[in-house]
Amino acid sequence: MKNVNLKSGYSIIEIIIYVAVFAIISIIVANAFVVLLSFFNQSRTNHDLLQNGNTALERMSHEIRIASAVKGTSVFNTSPGTLELDSLDSGGTAQVIKFSVSNGALNISKDGTVIDNLLGDNIKVTSLIFRNVDTTNSKVVKIEMTLQDSRDKTASNENFYNIVVLPKEVSGSGSSSSSSSTSTVTLPYSGFHSGTGGALIFPDNNGLGSIGVVGDIHSVGSIKLYGGTANITGSLFSGGSSGSIAFYDAYNHGSGYLVSGNSTANTVENNIATGTIYCQSGTGNNKSCDTSQPSPVVTDIPDWSTNIAAWKAEAEAGGTCQSGVAEIGPCKSTASQFYLYQNVTTINGPVWVTGELNIIQIAQKVKLPASYGSRDGVIIADDYVNIGGWGGNPAVVFEGSGAADSNILIVATKTPATYFKAIQLGNVTGNVVFYAPNGGIYVAGPNINVKGIIAKSLQIGSNGLSTIQAAISNTTLKFDQATFSVTP
After folding, report:
1. How many whole angstroms from its chain centre is CA 389?
2. For 187-236, how does the pLDDT look when each residue is reduced to its tens digit (9 = 90+)?
3. Are residues 161 and 308 in the same domain?
4. Which range marks the domain in which residue 167 is found?
5. Are 473 and 336 members of one domain?
6. pLDDT tens digits, residue range 272-316?
7. Which of 178, 196, 223 represents a domain boundary (last residue)?
């Protein structure tokens, strides 16, 4: 009998199954590779678009800021737009800078000659619009740009926007012009000025503290000191027949007012004055009342509502504010909480915040562009304003444009339910004026050195407060066409 050697193997069905499984796995791997490759290409495209777009925006914005005029031959409000600027080169020679689109390239030209394409070879402009917003107080150039990467098969776009504020003197017709009219409001006093709500000085919780106040205090209402000692380097004025400069020593160990200048009110109490005490009645003073002058008339705080409305309109025309950016304005924010928290924040135009405004970053600096010169900037909040570092932390610094007479005005239009708290100030220094026409300003410190504090009511002092100073004299605050003269 013959032996048969049977060898095992794969059946046709098994081979078909194995091939099918291998094919499925191959398809999955291939699809994964395609997805990864597509993701890589999309990431590269997005990176290139953002890098090119931001670089081009920065170059255009820089040229606009240093321009002496926007030429009337520019094409606004349509795509592709063109922007022509009168400018000076590094040697001071006049030149014309032009931005335009040609075959998808974003060209910059000098005196009619193209000198560069601001975009990479694969990045194309699909839309470029310049908008010229000429408001009452300033000129604004808005840039709206859409870019596309020619390597991107999906033809996706990336949008870019920027707003650049020019001095009012920069003309849209190609020549410089100046304002033919100004709106002037005279602020009668420098230093601290409170309205009918009066001024309250409160050194600390136990009446043991001492507050140093540098600057005059003018108040339509009474000026009151609760405990402790107030060292006033300046003079005190409380207006009207019911005006008083009063001291309430609830803890029986305060010294009252130490005043380097004059104390003037219908009634003056517990004053040790180097100057004259002008009053009709008084007790506890270091000298008798000088009754030769009537009770003083203290002018109420100014009404800048018309100017505020104009600033708000200019801010709204500039678009929506972004919180926490290095440059801001003109713009409007409708957020309930709005923060400025960059180490350095530049205010390029009026800023209007309908919610709360917070500027509390430690060692933060808020300033205006150098191009503002002696002009001033403004930030308006409709709600509560909280500004300044606390305790031993470094102060928030306001610099203006760098010019000695350039300031930033902080306005709080809120009418608070409580006596104070339209504006609360921690450690604040620099060229800044605070204005709360409908509420109070709470000066908490511990160290404040600003140009002016103007409010319906004023409270000075808290635990640890050492010195506050507010002094602005012989200075004209120029908010473009709106000019505020300040006379001591």
Report:
1. 16
2. 678 888 999 999 988 776 555 567 788 888 999 999 988 777 778 888 99
3. no
4. 67-178
5. yes
6. 888 999 999 998 888 999 999 988 889 899 888 888 888 888 888
7. 178
